[in-house]
Amino acid sequence: MPYIFALFVDPADPRAYLPTIVYSNPRAPIRSVEKLGRYSFGIQNCPEDVRAVYVLHAGEAPLGGAIYDTTTFDSYTVYTPGAS
Fold first, then answer.
1. Rounded to 5 degrees, what are φ and ψ at 11?
2. Which H helix or E strand runs over 16?
């Protein structure tokens, strides 16, 4: 449930973010969040935007051919837009 971390880091009024939630299967007993406001979860749900910042599991890489600066934390890598 990575969306919980986004809520801790970027607290928002529930009335503002609840309408923006997109579930992978809205009828599932335990729902998985694909998008929450400006955040996307799962590389397959991320936009191909060279301005985007990605936090991915080690071994995953952003889609597209953009150049990124990387910082690794344990088993995650943060990709930030780099010089082109």
1. -60, 135
2. helix 14-17
